[in-house]
Write a structure and sequence with these properties.
There is one protein chain. With 271 residues, the chain is an alpha/beta fold. The chain has one domain (9-270): NAD(P)-binding Rossmann-like Domain (Rossmann fold). 39% of the residues lie in helices and 14% in strands. It is built from seven helices and seven strands, in the order E-H-E-H-E-H-E-H-E-H-E-H-H-E. Strands 3-2-1-4-5-6-7 form a seven-stranded parallel β-sheet, with helices on both faces. Helix 4 links the parallel strand 4 and strand 5 (146-151). Helix 1 crosses helix 7 and helix 3 (69-83) runs parallel beside helix 4. The chain binds nicotinamide-adenine-dinucleotide (NAD).
Length: 271
């Protein structure tokens, strides 16, 4: 029973995305009710529908922009009216920048990185998690029970190794890099995790972070090879590899855990 989420309401931000849908499956597998929220309404609703069909459990998809306080308040009001509680919040949404090799001026590079892009990426990955926690967390604290799980990254603990993003035949000033925002947002989420864990430690709200390593998703072969060389287990993650951790961290199986940073990265941060 410790791994059960029977009838528990689990809000997943970025639920329409690649990993968000996997988190929702993990929740449905242990009888929770995933609420997938995303700016991409079609994807959030389609994933919720396929979970209902596959697992026979309730699942809902909502169009919500997590950078909007009003939209999160409306969502929370609606869920509280429907279910009277929110048990778990998974802060998963982020702008996951694809590396763009086409621009003349390589805009991922620090020297060229625009303030607008910095603000956009921080506002989704970090400010969005703050807004969702600020609005949903107090309902959990009032009930004396709840879990917040922040999805960080191995890059929440280490700097990106920019050598793995290098392209042949490009001068140094044209080489793409993993943007500064990704590392800053993920390190920030770890700070937010520790802050919230202690803030609500006497209110029954547990707050933890998961740091996943890179998931194989048809990236270019040379990139996969270079990244794999940095991973002791010798491969990138499969999309299902985090489901066990999601189930553990969202359920009572992790009842004595708060403020923890769980790293599941094939051992990358050991090397
Ligand atoms: N994919 C990986 O290899 C990997 C590795 C480590 C950590 N992560 C982290 O896991 C999380 C999910 O990654 P993913 O690969 O599924 O990314 P993804 O881009 O597929 O999904 C992110 C989702 O967030 C949504 N989103 C963006 N802005 C939003 C906003 N303002 N409001 C609501 N939703 C918004 C997007 O529409 C998208 O569906 C991210 O935090 C990412 O940093 C991913």
């Amino acid at each position: 029973m410790r791994f059960s989420l029977k009838n528990q309401i689990v809000v997943i931000t970025g639920g329409g995305g690649f990993l968000g849908g996997k988190h929702a499956e993990a929740i449905a597998e242990i009888e929770g009710i995933p609420i997938l929220i995303d700016i991409d309404e079609e994807s959030a609703k389609a994933k919720a529908k396929s979970i209902e069909e596959e697992y026979g459990s309730a699942a809902l998809g909502y169009k919500v922009d997590i950078t909007s306080t009003e939209e999160i308040e409306t969502l929370a009001d609606d869920l509280l009216k429907r279910f009277d509680k929110i048990d778990v919040l998974i802060n998963n949404a982020a702008m996951n920048p694809q590396m763009d090799y086409k621009t003349e001026k390589e805009e991922t590079r620090l020297e060229n990185f625009s303030l607008e892009r910095w603000n956009d990426e921080v506002s989704v990955g970090l400010t969005g998690a703050f807004i969702c926690s600020k609005i949903i967390g107090p309902h959990m604290a009032k009930r004396g029970k709840g879990v917040i799980l922040n999805i960080a990254s191995d890059l929440g603990l280490i700097a990106p190794d920019q050598r793995i993003y290098r392209k042949k035949n490009l001068s140094d000033d044209k080489q793409p890099v993993k943007p500064v925002t990704y590392t800053v947002v993920k390190h920030g989420l770890i700070g937010l995790t520790r802050y919230l864990a202690t803030y609500w430690c006497d209110k029954g709200v547990r707050v933890n972070a998961l740091c996943p390593g890179g998931i194989y998703n048809n990236q270019p072969e040379d990139f996969v090879e270079k990244l794999t060389n940095l991973i002791p287990l010798g491969r990138m993650a499969n999309p299902d590899d985090y489901k066990g951790a999601i189930q553990f961290m969202c359920s009572d199986a992790s009842i004595y855990m708060t403020g923890s940073i769980v790293v599941i990265d094939g051992g990358r941060t050991c090397w």
